[in-house]
Amino acid sequence: MESGPAPTSSPTPAPVVTPAPVVWGRLQHGVFAFLACSWLLYAFPRPATVLLGTFLQAWMTVCGWCGFDLAERPWRWPGKWMGEIAKIDTGWQEVTTWTADNLWVPFSVVHQLTGSGDTGHDFARFVIIVAVSTFVAVVWAVLGTRTVTPRFWRILHLLVRWDLAFHMLGYGLIKLYGTQFGEMGPMRLTTEVGDLMPMTLVGTFMQANPGYEVFGGIGETLGGLLLFHPRTALLGAVVSFGVMTNVCALNWMCGVPVKLFSLHLLLFALFLMAPYRQRAWAVFFGNTPSQPVRLAISDSRRGALAMTLVGVVFVGSHLYAAHVGMTAPKPWMQGREKSALFGVWQVESMQVDGKALEATDAARWRFLAIDVGTFAFVRATTGQRTFLEFTLAADGKSAAVKSRSAAAAEASTWELVEGKKTVPVRNPTPLTPADYQKPVEAERRTLQVRGTWNGKPLVLELVEKVHLLQTPFRLRQELPDGW
To answer: How far apart are CA 219 and CA 202, in angstroms?
Structure first.
């Protein structure tokens, strides 16, 4: 009798190998203590104000829908907490003042609202943060503390990642909404390039190139959004690092006084890329496989889902609050609207008391510049500016004008007549170098002014000036415009 096939023995399951817990040494504990302490001291109170500010905007929106009066209790408590947290900055001022008074820093500390982030106060604060963080790191390492695990690294990574993300969003959105640099006005257009400070030149470049401002805003916003999710955290850190490298270069080389702050954001991005250093080496240099990087805080699926939902709600609320803030009416802009005559008007002829002034006459004006609101100025042949109070009538046919330097002077009435004429201008699309020497005709607005100035009759013939810096985008260019 034939026997059946021999029974196959089931394979012995491989033993489950539990990875040995990672044990940190003194160096890892010291580095962690320094980074965590320095970030906490430098970042706060902003993370808390971002959290409360987002909640406050959502709270005000809900209260508005429900018809609650935010001036009454208990609806005003979020704003009260915002004020209490802001007192942390006041405490820092006392610390930096004491530091300077006791000669711990070799410079003066003056507290004033200037918009600069590189003041003596800021540098003294930076020195204190480095000193305190170093002390904490040394003590922690020497005492041999073993309470910190790699999970704490991941928590710190998460906090820094979200902090940088909101910073990137803040700068990115303000550029996308076109409110960081504003619009180039007559004052900037009529200032010689050599008289501009390097920082002002950066602002002029951004004002003259709104498309580049949007481009920068897209990069910053994209970097911020990518940082919110651990799967895209590396890409967000790389994008943020590239964007902030460019920002740091402008700030440090052109004297924009946020050098310390932008450098910290750059270092934040570098810190976020540190866990991926082995993967980056394998991809760019080693050409070898690499292990995934674990950034999860929670080991449970429910915990991870809960954190994701909270994050989505928080980020969505923040974006909504930013949109509301950017598009809300701005009361401080009332009275600063542009009039129909906004711009620079070049003087073609000028008569004072019936006498025509030659172009070489020091008393003759080169142009009349009409800015926002009631602000205007004239510039003489000598380059001297005279600032005016220029109140245009509702019909646009007259204006009440007086010098701002003489507060007691009475305003005189200027009669205004608008028109149009054809003038020779530089060829915007030259085909050969010779075309640069051949002006082309373009239509420009004109303005005739009749009134009085310093008690004497005044007649002006003006033509609107379009500066070369206002040249629109051209896709095809046969010749460069020149550096």
So the answer is: 18
